[in-house]
Amino acid sequence: MTCIVGLVEENHVYIGADSLGTDDYHRTHISTFKKLFRKGDFLIGCSGSIRMIELLQYVFVAPEFSESDDVNSYMVSKVAEEIKSCFEKAALKEDDRGGILVGFKGRLFFIDGYNYQIEEDVCGYRATGCASDFAVGVLWATRGLDMPALSRVEFALEASAEHNAYVRRPFIIESI
After folding, report:
1. How far apart are CA 67 and CA 144, in angstroms?
2. For residue 31, is pLDDT > 90?
3. How far apart are CA 102 and CA 41, in angstroms?
């Protein structure tokens, strides 16, 4: 249960995440473990289990990118396949998988943790997690306003926390 928000502005990717964790009994805790982290040239934000996030942060090895590589082909044929391999080797249960936002080369990608498909929205923003609809609504509503990207991401997280019991501060926002 979470909200991860991503936004592209002027060739920079901003990703924000809340800090609430829940267990199978709906108990809540604010974890020191972050749902948002850097991995080489990637900025990664995840919804799903902490185990999935641990695997991405500490086990997943980002494939080497060559400047001659096509970014789309690289994401589909190398990154998605490496994530799939990482999850399979760790026997990550399907119930523990979620959505993954990846900032890379000034672009924002969504990777589905269930089927590993890669998506890139033409609108330049995306959210994942149980409160993603609130966040996407805020990003849509603020798209024409004179509002910095960082503020838009924070505003989207605030709206998500206000309207969903499974999203809570502190918010972590980074850019790449």
Report:
1. 33
2. no
3. 10
